[in-house]
Amino acid sequence: MTATMQEPVAAVPAPPRRRVRPLWVLTALTAVAPVTWGTTYVVTTEWLPPDRPLLAATVRALPAGLLLVAAGRVLPRGAWWWKAAVLGTLNIGAFFALLFVAAYRLPGGVAAVLGAVQPLVVALLSLPLLGLPLRGRTFALGAAGVTGVALVVLTDAARLDPLGVVAGLVATGCMGTGVVLTKRWGRPVPVLAFTGWQLAAGGALLLPLALAVEGLPTTVTAGEVGGFVYLAVVNTALAYVLWLRGIGLLPADRVSFLGLLSPVVAAAAGWALLGQSLGPLQLAGVVLALGSVLLAQRGR
């Protein structure tokens, strides 16, 4: 018997390992989105034309969406045409429009409390759409978060307008549904293109509404241009890229609790920039809301 000689096989280099960011880094980057959204009220009241909320929403969404689509250089294919339209409507178009209806018909504090219900909406929708069980801990933290936001933003003069309450709840439901569906459907392309699809779809929905209801302003100051640029670039393009990336990498319930940062930052911005006061109850609400956010990031 003779031995057979085999040619040595060249070693195949292992593919480079992708760098995995720590969970707290991903959470912190995702939290940048609601933190910037908390500055929307100050920017809108101080640097944008008055009484043009739909115009502000359109300028936030459409230019940023088109820019990100161009940067991503990928268009939807197949079923993703209607999926992107659905997500763009839920996360951007319908959400922005309904949010402004609520803001105009309700005190800002009431609208913020309605928005704080989002973690509970996400928890309820995660059962049928994601197959995740309902957890008592999530509902307890969600209730604590709503209570904390209420302490921060509600005043004795708060009034309830039925149409405004319905608009605020539906807006919260739209955003919560968008979070869960984004988690269910996944992200078929890089995050820049994926964000651009949704912003462009939402902006396309808002544009005819803004033109029909408000029209275009006849004059725009340099300060207003700066406000629009901030809303489009930082408050929307950057914020939604980080937000949608976080939804894809983090559990949906953890992401939804980060939204509680928005009213807290809005109150802090009003105190720092507009001279608004923060009493003991409001400070207790800040602690309660932030505690809910932090505790929601622990566990599985």
Automatic annotation (TrEMBL):
Keywords: Membrane, Transmembrane, Transmembrane helix
TM region positions: 23-42, 54-72, 84-104, 110-132, 139-157, 163-182, 189-213, 225-243, 255-274, 280-296
Cellular-component GO terms for this entry: membrane
Record-annotated EamA domain positions: 29-153, 163-295
Localization per Swiss-Prot or TrEMBL: Membrane
Family per similarity comment: Belongs to the EamA transporter family.
Protein name, per record: Probable blue pigment (Indigoidine) exporter
Protein source organism: Geodermatophilus saharensis
